[in-house]
Amino acid sequence: MAGKPILHYSNDRGRMESIRWLLAAAAVEFEEKYIETRQDLEKLRNDGVLVFQQVPMVEIDGMKLVQTRAILNYIASKYNLYGKDIKERALIDMYAEGIADLNELIILYPFRAPGEKDANFTQIRDKARNRYFPAFEKVLKSHGQDYLVGNKLSKVDIHLAELLYNMEELDPSIITSFPLLQALKTRISSLPTVKKFLQPGSQRKPPVDDKCVEKVFKIFH
User: What is the CATH number of domain 86-191?
Assistant: First the structure.
């Protein structure tokens, strides 16, 4: 029997958080080995387990996978969260790329210099309200189904729910004018596996604070 996946990353959200969300939604238990110091990161590099010298890295099924999208796609394929055919996978990938574009801005936001944060927040909010959220609202309206692709839960629904939670932490009213996105968020949050992940004490990480920012900079910069 294969062991639990092992996640190698610092003890914060970053690019690993979407992987945590997807594993949790798929009811996959996982372990984490935190990178606490620069020396921890250098050891992984020196051991030759980081193909491109960077994390996140996930040990799963005898592999040491890096690159966030590759990891997410493998998990989605393994746990039947990647559509039924190549056309559905193409749509899932297309929507997931849009989500990743916006989520990357959110990931980097806490690490912006204080003088840049206001402008960066405005950029994130405007892109959410005027580009990404209307697009996903339109997709849901166009087919009237419960999920974005094929009326079946896929990785992109999980990614979108995570994005909505992240955006609401920045602006609690951000999705009030998008009723179908609100309904999707409620639907995903009600799934037993996701509901468990959203409870206090789970492996979901809290928002990044100043102390965390300082620690991450010491490790990766």
Answer: 1.20.1050.10
Which phi and psi (to 5°) does residue 176 adopt? -65, -25
CATH architecture of 6-79+197-214: 3-Layer(aba) Sandwich (3.40)
Two structure tokens written together for 72: 């997410």
d(CA 220, CA 123): 25
Q: Check residue 24 and give its pLDDT.
A: 97
- Label the pairing between strands 31-34 and 63-66: unpaired
**Spatial contact of 105 and 12, defined as CB atoms under 8 Å apart:** no
| Residues 50, 66 contacting (CB under 8 angstroms) | yes
Nearest to 18 by CA among 87, 65, 60, 73: 73
Q: Is the peptide bond before 5 cis (omega within 30 degrees of 0)?
A: no
Sole residue written with tokens 């990891």: 71
Kindly report the average pLDDT of the chain as a whole number. Answer: 96
